[in-house]
Amino acid sequence: MKKIVILLLIALTVSCTNKVVKEEDGGIPVDSSSVALSKFIEGNIYEMKGNFGDAIVKYNEALEYEKSAGIYYAIAKNCYRINRLAPALTNAKQAVKLDPDNPEYLFLLATIYDVSHMDDSSAVVYNKIIEIEPNNVNAYYNLAQLYEKNKPLEAIKIYKKLISSIGPEWHILVRLTELNERIGNQKETIETLEELSRLNPSNLDLQKLLIDAYTKAEQYDRAFKLCDELLLSYPFDLGLLQQKGNIYIKQNNWKEAARVYEEIFDRNNLGLTEKLQLATLFYAAADKDSNNIYIARKFLQKIDSDTSDWQVNAYLGEIELKLGNDSAAVEYFRKSAKLAEWNAQVWIRAGGLLFDSRKYDETIEFMSEAAEKFPNDFVINLIYGLALSQSNKHAEAKIYLKRAINLNPDDITALSAYGYTLNQLKENDEALVYLNKALLLQPDNVDLIGTVAMIYESEGNYKMSDSLYQHALELDSLNAIVLNNYAYSLAERNIRLDEALKMASKAVESEPENSSFLDTIGWIYFRLGDYQKAKDYIEKSLSVEPDNYTVVDHLGDVYFMMGNKTKAMEYWRKAYELNNDNKKVKEKIEKGEI
Predict the structure, then answer these.
(1) pLDDT tens across the length of the chain (594 residues)
(2) Nearby residues of 214 by Cβ (< 8 Å), 6 or more positions away
(3) φ, ψ for residue 29 (rounded to 5)?
(4) Judging by DSSP bridges, how do beta strands 22-23 and 16-19 pair with one another?
(5) d(Cα 227, Cα 542) in Å, to the nearest integer?
(6) pTM of the model
(7) CA 66 – CA 64 distance, rounded (Å)
(8) Phi, psi torsion values for 66, nearest 5 degrees
(9) Strand 22-23 with 29-30, pairing
């Protein structure tokens, strides 16, 4: 303890600048230096015990008797220790003001500026320290770290200066490597890493960094050479094998990359996550080499044979979809949904694919479960509602499409589908409200215009429906749905049949297997009196959609006009079984004629 007191006394003697003359209560002057020293010693004892708050109190008491740079420094240091940065900064500034060339005081001030994110002020102070002590390694190093944020080139200069001064020090070389990597200076990154490797040749992680640097610099021969050398010593290191595969990928040599990665893949110690990463690497690169999609599938199928994982099945579904195998894709998505019942996106993917494949009954079955699990998911309600609508289950479709609109009021698909469904339920006034809202959002949407036209047509307002159909075709003269619907409207009215035939022909040309389009052109031929062509097209329509009562009814009419009343009656009765609300079909059955 005696030694500490002597050292502190020396510090105070050197740094004392302003003495404060005080008197005791009786008016007797006291020796302010002695009192200050006594308080300072008490503070120092608290500091040594780790009681920094009490130390600060005693140092401040000492400051009342003597304004010393050393006392200000002691207060600043202890405030900094307990993260009281504002008083730490104030006292550090005061210490430097009283003793501006003291490196220790300057270093504390620079540090406080640094942790207070006052980088420019900190840099100024570090530069001053370097002026005073040109060989102060710590000042150089801290200044370089400051410059790393916004002045990387300046930081690199300082680190190089340090290396020339103290030699190739490990952590400085590491900082140089990271900086050169950040600014894309591959040449210097490689040189620094090679220097580090010479310092520590057994450091495998460092060697791997060097391989990466060679690869980024397109020095593939050097990368392969080092990689193969290391694999002789570490033949089971998966990281090295991955790096070798990556070098092949950088060269766009996906075939050799696949060979290396397959070796990695077959290692028993490779986890599911790592295997999935390898598979998705090739999946993502399918646009670079079409063979990669098959490699990805092979990897994923291997994973699937060992374990059931929803992600694996989801990726396999996407792959089968890309390869045009819709049925296989659906099954993978179904399995994925069952494995991840909590994941709405997988249900959406499977349901959307089923819907796009026009498997509406399967879509309904699948999405009914999804709608129960995710009642507030917009897309699930929309797909389910659309599938119900396509299956003519309009009363049910209305519920889910309305829910979809509540969840997303400005979605065009939901608004138009809901409007169509309301139209099918003969709620045309309400249907027009939603369809017109959709048209306000997209006034040139041809499908919407066509749907509104269809509603006006169903109400017998042909002037309005014809005008809208014509406007839609002005916007898109090849829109198959509008062409078909307009043509069918004209055929039903038995007017402008040649024009209707041209429109129907375009529609069929665009979608030769569309049941509705085939029925329309067949019905136009019926109106034109060409019953054989009518029969051919309508029969083809029925082969696509055998339970469509309108098409069945039409074929009955064709047979009647061809003189085959037995066949006609057979089809009318079938049409009536499919829809016993159709009074016109009932009348034909009762009369035995059209």
Answers:
(1) 333 332 333 344 334 445 554 555 455 555 788 999 999 999 999 999 999 999 999 999 999 999 999 999 999 999 999 999 999 999 999 999 999 999 999 999 999 999 999 999 999 999 999 999 999 999 999 999 999 888 988 988 898 888 888 877 878 877 878 888 788 888 888 888 888 788 888 888 888 888 988 988 889 999 999 999 999 889 888 889 889 999 998 998 998 988 888 888 777 567 888 888 888 888 988 888 888 999 999 999 988 988 889 999 999 999 998 898 988 988 999 899 999 999 999 999 999 989 988 889 999 999 999 999 999 999 999 999 999 999 989 999 999 999 999 999 999 999 999 999 999 999 999 999 999 999 999 999 999 999 999 999 999 999 999 999 999 999 999 999 999 999 999 999 999 999 999 999 999 999 999 999 999 999 999 999 999 999 999 999 999 999 999 999 999 999 999 999 999 999 999 999 999 888 899 999 999 998
(2) 190, 220, 222, 223, 226
(3) -60, 145
(4) unpaired
(5) 66
(6) 0.54
(7) 6
(8) -155, 125
(9) antiparallel
Residue pair 381/407 in contact (Cβ under 8 Å)? The answer is yes
Q: Which residue has the tokens 């028993």?
A: 268
Q: 502 CB contacts (<8 Å, ≥6 apart)? A: none
What are the tokens at 330?
A: 């659906």
